[in-house]
Amino acid sequence: MNSLVARQRFDDMFPDLFRRFMRPLSTEFEVPGEIRVDLTENDKEYLVRAEVPGVKKEDIQVSIDGNRVSISAEVKSEKEEKSGNGNRSLCKEIYYGSASRMFTLGHEVDEKGSVAKYENGVLKLTLPKRKEAVSKTLQIQ
Fold first, then answer.
1. Which CATH number fits domain 26-128: 3.40.50.2300, 2.60.40.3710, 1.10.10.350, 2.60.40.790?
2. Is the whole-model pTM more than 0.70?
3. Which residues of the chain have pLDDT under 50?
4. Would you list the domain boundaries of the chain?
């Protein structure tokens, strides 16, 4: 009796573990490889919460094209620790990197009414749905 069993690659079983394996232990300035997003909607708008830690708001870009939204961030951070009275560096951590995320929504977004706020590493977007044109049935004469 032959039985086929689908085997999963070991690194696919723990994607976060292997994705972060070679990163430094200190993550103070680290931007994740992907921007994590919570997305909710109601009748009038979409609400987006995106984690973008360690980034200045000037280095975040949000673009809207119809129903496509993209978020990108760039980090340029330096941290230097010194010990004693001398100028000898014992530890110097520099991180430069970028992350981006794009998603497609069910309705087009009204760009003029959209609002973006960034506070404590969390980007909050309020994206109102564009009012769809009302369809009209024509009388054939």
1. 2.60.40.790
2. no
3. 24-32
4. 26-128
